[in-house]
Write a sequence for this structure.
């Protein structure tokens, strides 16, 4: 597949890589209005760089779980339509609010991704869920948030093994989380995110 | 729209367009049990003329709600935590001292008197017309009041510690977290201290006795209250205290500089302590 409209492989500041158009957020290099989408800082960028079909398009509606300071979600909002960014911790949310101010289609929500009922009165049905939450129970979070996905929508999930259990073999942790996810989703793609993100598994899934 | 009673209404229901404050409250406190096409519903109900106006209002309100929630949660700052833990200690000390004093006085008049909170609670409920007993009953009532206050402040410490320093709180519990921050003078100060200093915070007397010469170096300060130190065999306590303070130092820095909760630090500590404790067994 090709890259979604709005994401291009461009030379920015001497290096070629993915880039989107928007206000710079985290000191990334920019050139001609394009800002580098750094793969070592964004798991989604790793998947897009591999041309994995993530379901991110110019008109998709997105729910982003675990938005943190807004590094990745800023690029998503540059590309996509209405983007809901859920983050639980107040300190990164302060940065995220700044990122959202410059992006009218980005809606920050200080909420717990494990309790979707607390933002179901705000978030509309979406075409894409991006989940990057560093907490125990990542599979359960994916299942609990399935209600937001439209038919034919997609879940892009970055599983962080160390958040589940540092003492276990990452592959075993991935299997456990995938088991939970598979109860409600069909898995379309899984692969490690090395060398950019150690002990992370990238997953693309569709609701059953 | 209470949290226990999810409604089928969107955040904008009952909110006047342009009333940011009401919208903020609805976003923060509302809930729903099903997901609906809120933009279409909002246009139907007349909250917005069209979807783009809805998104404009949604943007304005979510940004305001998040900013407000952030400043509220951060208003629970490290200095407030320090005041809370010190007040908790004072109230507890006062309650204990008064319990002893009142029980001693009451013991001279009531052979059943014992020095414990059950007796004080019972005494507080008595009715009396004797001028001395009246004072004792009144004092007992004040002690019970102080103890209630201690519970309330403890809950406050738990909540504040959690939002000020999520990683430290996960690892050390809210009270020890508050004590460490109080001893250092703030979260920033704690984050800038080396692990070796954190290890002996609260053991300054012993530390200076050691530095003057003669006395052995203290193995632990206030972190002694942590299960990982106290529950480890004395011969390994120095190692356990060193491992714990090392991870606490990392947790304090994450809490100060990032504020994100990272469970892996805690798990690394669990693993390390297990290895230290296994040394006796072998």
């Amino acid at each position: 597949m090709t890259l979604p409209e709005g994401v291009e492989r461009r030379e920015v500041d001497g290096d070629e890589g993915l880039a989107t158009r928007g206000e710079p957020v985290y000191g990334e290099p920019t050139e001609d209005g394009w800002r580098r989408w750094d793969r070592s800082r964004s798991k989604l960028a790793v998947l897009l760089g591999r041309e994995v079909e993530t379901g991110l398009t110019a008109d998709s509606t997105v729910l982003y779980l675990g938005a943190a300071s807004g590094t990745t979600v800023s690029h998503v909002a540059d590309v996509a339509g209405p983007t809901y960014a859920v983050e639980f911790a107040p300190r990164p949310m302060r940065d995220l609010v700044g990122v959202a101010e410059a992006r009218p289609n980005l809606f920050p929500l200080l909420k717990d991704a494990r309790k979707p009922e607390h933002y179901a009165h705000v978030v509309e049905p979406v075409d894409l869920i991006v989940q990057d939450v560093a907490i125990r129970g990542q599979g359960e979070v994916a299942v609990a948030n399935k209600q937001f996905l439209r038919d034919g929508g997609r879940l892009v999930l970055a599983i962080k093994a160390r958040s589940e259990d540092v003492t276990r073999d990452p592959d075993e942790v991935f299997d456990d989380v995938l088991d939970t996810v598979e109860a409600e989703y069909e898995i379309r793609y899984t692969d490690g995110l090395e060398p950019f993100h150690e002990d992370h598994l990238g997953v693309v899934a569709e609701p059953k | 729209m209470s949290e226990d009673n999810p409604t089928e209404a969107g955040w904008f229901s009952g909110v006047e367009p342009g009333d940011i404050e009401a919208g903020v409250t609805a976003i923060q406190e509302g809930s729903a049990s099903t997901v609906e096409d809120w933009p279409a519903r909002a246009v139907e109900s007349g909250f917005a003329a069209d979807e783009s106006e809805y998104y404009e209002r949604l943007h304005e309100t979510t940004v305001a709600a998040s900013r407000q929630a952030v400043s509220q949660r951060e208003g629970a700052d490290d200095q407030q935590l320090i005041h809370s833990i010190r007040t908790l200690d004072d109230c507890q000390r006062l309650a204990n001292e008064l319990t002893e004093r009142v029980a001693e006085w009451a013991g001279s008049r009531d052979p059943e008197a014992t020095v414990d909170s059950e007796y004080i609670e019972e005494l507080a409920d008595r009715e009396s017309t004797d001028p001395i007993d009246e004072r004792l009953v009144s004092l007992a009532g004040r002690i019970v009041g102080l103890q209630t206050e201690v519970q309330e402040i403890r809950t406050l410490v738990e909540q504040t510690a959690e939002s000020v320093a999520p990683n430290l709180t996960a690892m050390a519990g809210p009270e020890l977290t508050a004590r460490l921050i109080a001893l250092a003078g703030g979260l920033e100060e704690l984050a800038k201290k080396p692990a070796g200093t954190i290890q002996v915070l609260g053991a300054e007397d012993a530390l200076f006795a050691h530095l003057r010469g003669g006395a052995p170096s203290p193995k632990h300060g206030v972190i002694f209250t942590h299960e990982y130190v106290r529950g480890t065999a004395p011969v390994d306590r120095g190692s356990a205290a060193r491992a714990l303070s090392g991870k606490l130092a990392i947790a304090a820095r994450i809490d100060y500089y990032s504020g994100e909760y990272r469970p892996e630090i805690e798990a690394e500590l669990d693993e390390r302590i297990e290895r230290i404790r296994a040394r006796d067994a072998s």
Remarks:
- The mean pLDDT of chain A is 93.
- The radius of gyration of chain A is 16 Å.
